[in-house]
């Protein structure tokens, strides 16, 4: 009966669309859902595919419809007028929302939404060819009380070119694509048992899920207005609801797993036994057992990873500052506890702040991961100048103590100095990936925001744990040497790892900005050193430190703001003298090689990733690996994530990772295999053995 009702409603609405304009007084003004046609690139390359977006903005109180509107409504229909050599694919909708009106279930969009269409340019199209695109779009706009059929013709003019995509357009389309359902990639199964239909969907037992709902795109199959029950049964999710009509073939649809998140799936007829633990609306309001288990695992991994970060090369130099403060504290128990708490607070707050900023930027469409701040050369230069100042201070060139204001935060005594030392340690610790961290950070990105922030806080707590223990356990503190004359020598020794850190930052700046950036960074560091030497000379004479401090700060700020942002000089090792030549990673190149049945080893690295560089030196760039890969015809693709790259970020996210390193082996005719984060030559040569 409902199918007949929907057919009659659709016929009436289509008839309304066919009436002349004089018969549609509601269509004389602006549409209730404003529409615009947006191209990802104004100059698509011949042989490439770009996305076109229908950017739809409903007025307040109005809504549009998904491809399957539910009990009532209509989706969008398109009539294209395309030039020769241009084709379009099927319209792809974002994950919809549910809306019940008068007992009818509707699948709608109540806020701005953007269905996407893939536009393919034939390789035969010559560069410079003008490509006028025109499409007549019809849709239904409704409120809770009325519905209005709306129509418009949208146009855009493209020119075949180099396929360039602006940063703003890339970010905008990345945001829209994030709201599309992702392919499930596994086979689902359904069984109709009388009036009940059960759908078994492969889904990890530890996978987060919030407010699940199954939107069927196949009709008939599932009753739209019937309630849906969800059960977790190991690594599968079972949907149980009321069947509708006679379903004989596959059942397609979208499983909502969170706000604007979904999985596109096709279920085949089979056997689905009832069972599992129910997760209903009430349970969705509180963290489910699976979410709590995932949170506990992620939190444990973050704590252990943070603890192990203390022995990583990128954190050790900063810990020398804390070691000096501990030596100064001596046996003062109250001071030791105060400093330990302040140090912990600095680390935890910075980790939570970085994690919150990461989540906010990703929610806004940015394709970034952990350590995102070190992909900006200006941050690298700021750290270089800060580390330079700390290094010369430890070496005895000047003293912070005589400067009453504007002094280095990390050099202050007491709780303030401990807090900012912890903040700096957390900030520079992000390039390091300790064991247990990768899974924890990946899980944080799919957990609810409060739980994710708790994981980031756990990482900071793990990093601070050794000094927290020293501050609160007298037995550990008694093992520390007593303050004495040796501290002056110890302080100068600790300047050595800080100077090495400055050298590493100079190298990293060069990788991101080329030789120009290196010269700029060295000049800025040398100027700062000269001003600090002047400061030390004035201090030795008992004069004020304000005079050299002002130009020192001004020159540092100017150097950071005016840093040339040219592309880095680093590139994949394609030269003839490279041990293992590589090619630049791109999804198009990967697809081309896979279609040609070529074995591919894809690895993703960054110059600030210590683990990445260790693997490259110990396993990837080795003669044995190169010989084995050459004999087997393996093509090596290198994804350099030193500077932000949205394509690499999207690929990492698709593999369930939030950062590097990542190593993936593609064997012809087989599913891709993600390799361990620590590689050996035997691990790689065994791939082709």
UniProtKB/TrEMBL annotation:
Q: How does it sit in the membrane?
A: Multi-pass membrane protein
Where it mainly occurs, coarsely classed, is membrane
Q: Where in the cell is it found?
A: Cell membrane
Enumerate the Gene3D superfamilies for this protein.
Answer: Glutaredoxin
* Residues annotated as domain Thioredoxin: 565-689
The residue ranges crossing the membrane are 291-319, 340-359, 379-398, 419-446, 452-473, 493-510, 516-535, 547-567
The UniProt keywords, alphabetically, are:
Cell membrane, Cytochrome c-type biogenesis, Membrane, Signal, Transmembrane, Transmembrane helix
InterPro entries, per the entry: Cyt_c_assmbl_TM_dom (IPR003834), DsbD_gamma (IPR035671), DsbDN (IPR028250), Thioredoxin-like_sf (IPR036249), Thioredoxin_domain (IPR013766)
Protein name per Swiss-Prot or TrEMBL = Thiol:disulfide interchange protein DsbD
